[in-house]
Batch of 3 targets.
Target 1
Amino acid sequence: MFNNRKIVIATKHKKEQVIAPLLLQEFNINAIICEQLDTDQLGTFSGEIERNLSPIEAAKQKCYMAMELTQCDLAMASEGSFGPHPTLFFVNADDEILVLIDKKNKVEIVVRHISTDTNFNGAEIMNENELKHFADNALFPHHGLIIRDKKDGVVEMVKGIDNWDLLQKTFHNFYSKFGRMYIETDMRAQFNPKRMQVIKEAVQKLIAKMKSTCPQCQIPGFDITAVKKGLPCLLCNMPTQSPVAHIYKCVHCDFILENKIADKQFEDPMNCNFCNP
């Protein structure tokens, strides 16, 4: 279904640098970008434009915009969110949504990849020692920075700072005007190699899902949609909250497959609500 096709990658932040080679290698898909596409109109990390759509809907909208501009029937887009990990609350995470839309075959494939390998951070600074400390921790100048007048301010902002001369010049300019400033990591993909790596990992998950087809209708995207709990306790044999099977469901024909987890037949009594309430 995907071999030898053309795909438009809906980005203005050079994500094609990590996406295109993987698609070419796996499916011989030739990737293009659209210079006229402005994905920032759907929202920016730095807050000048608020994102009103959910990450999935934003990624889908990028695909539709790119397909309309290029008349291409296959598109891919990503949307990233940054902040506390959903379960590790004191650890920052990069949460990437990746969407592929095949208008020709009426197929949509969505994957989500969360990684704690991110330099996402921000701080108010008032002197050059604080500036250098933040920059070093943020892996500058390999990773870009943003300076603004205050944390939620857009009175003045400089983005894409990627060398020490520009960083110091911007610092002194803001200090003379405001006496302090807010510095943060630039999370746009072309200024953030760590994010590029997470996007690459998300693409690898997407490719695996593109290769996974429904046993009934052969449509790609056949994947785990739920987990069945109830692995029996080794001591009392009562069902626990541990998974016993993965549930696969086709988004096209609704075919359902239950795949038992074979590597474990019983749960440790320590994880049983009856033996260890």
Target 2
Amino acid sequence: MESWQIKLSQGDSDTAWDLFVERYRRLIFATIRHLATDYDDVMDVFASVCEALRENDMARLRRYAERESHGGRFSTWLAAVVRNQTIDWFRHRDGRKRVSSVVAELPPLHQKIFQYVFHESRSHLETYELLQTRDGCDLSFGEFLSALMATYRALSEGRKGRLMRELVGVALPPDVDVVAEPGATAPDIGEHLERALAALTSEDRLAVQLFVIDDMPAAEVARVVGWPSAKTVYNRVSRALAALRVAFARRGIGSGDL
């Protein structure tokens, strides 16, 4: 039982909250920054998350602490809660506006592809045909593939892309009808990556996110995830990355394709 949980069980919610924030402030900020880049947004989301976790005498944290059993570590659960709170904050504030602003930065052809694929839920083949018949685009199939992949990359790269994936679902639809051979396309690789990451344990996924993506020091990752030392982080992340490489190799994807 952590110190904040002991104080919470004793009815001292003010002290429990102070201990909780001191213990998990960095994890909360790291999770928020995974989706937000603007400093003011990060601070506003942090305030919103803290308000939600503290409301009703820390009811959400209390419910977790009072469970008889847990499926994973508290840090993993907390990261998931903060991630969902962050997404909800952006959706409530400016989900449509944010999507529109990102799409407006795309070239005209890519905007059309976004409209058909993501807004109208058209298949890739339908999109290609509509571009030719409705929009008068004189595109070869290979040129369309290149534009399609460029659209996916523009919408899914970086922290802005991570948020876009949540707001509009920038993921390869199930009706993949334009896979170019040989080798995997950029959308395919993104889908394979999601599947490979899903095969890792929740702790390993969190460690990979914090250590590799968010560049958090190994010692801090160990503290957040609950592992004994930085060496454990190096070993576990190394094994996780090796597992990802094996998963890619089984799908015929090499380092040169990434």
Target 3
Amino acid sequence: MISFALTDDQQTVRESMRGFAAAALRPKARECDEAAAIPDAFYEQAWELGLVATQLPEAVGGYGAPRSPLTNAIVLEELAYGDAALALAAVGPALFAYAVADQGTAEQQQAYLPGLCGDRYQAASLAVAEPSPTFDACAPRTTLERQGSGYVLRGSKCAVPLADRAGHFLVVAREGDGLAAAIIARDAAGLTIRDDKTLGLKALPLATLELDGVRVAAGDKLGGSAGADVGRLLAHSRVAIAALLTGLGRAVLDYCIPYTKERVAFGEAIARKQSIAFRLAEMQMEVDCMRWMTWKAASQLEYGHDATRAAHLARTYTADKGMWIADNGVQCLGGHGFIREHPVELWYRNARTLGVLEGLASV
């Protein structure tokens, strides 16, 4: 029988992350958005939770817990309930770490993962999105071509998280008729990093990578000569974004319900008006649907099934409905929905940005 009940461990993780989001993310969200920056102290505070190292092998310094995309989706929902930009900063190194742990060679794991299991925050990132209106993650314009004993990367990547501090990047590119991913250092010759400016997620450092003939050693192609299943890597990322949008949608709903109960217009609380009450009810239904779709895709990843379709559907549905919920949150607050005194306008901008970008998180 299918069950949506959480295990005791998952319930404990959920409650822990909920408390951390309430204490460390929600209070800092507005300040970080206004400053378009995240304090170094927050990175260190989040690192102490072991969000990345917990599911990395003991052989490379991790805690050796089983990889669980479903548990990670639960974590991301709770963190995004506090703030999506800070959530992405907290778990950002997992973009690189989980890909190498899941699909990297033994040599790649020994070379790159120990640094992500230390006592201090260490950033690494994934480069998927490209600055093109017709961008398709499954058909990138960035290319990885064989040259001599190694490879060469050419192209552009945008919206790369943590690019201001990442020591290494995992770049998704087209290799012949297929997809590949290559590891490069931030000081690689031919790599230029330029800051991006976005509508939402303003606190999160995002950047464009210009790859002008960047050399890649043969041993730095993810998975070595056998390559990697980049489609599965993308599925992990899409489930993560779906989880973030679910948490953000729940935050909007939980803010609107008490507001509409307290806001009085024409002698009664606006929550008693059908147009508002029905809207809130539908927002609740959509949050639940978003969560079930996210958990279904995460579960398929966890059990080793092909989650391509489920991840794509979860990502598409949550992007659509997450934006719909955020928009209706603004409408429920009326004029107050447009001012910074309330967080709904921030969530609206974050929902729009999450809905159009790829490769911001992983489960």
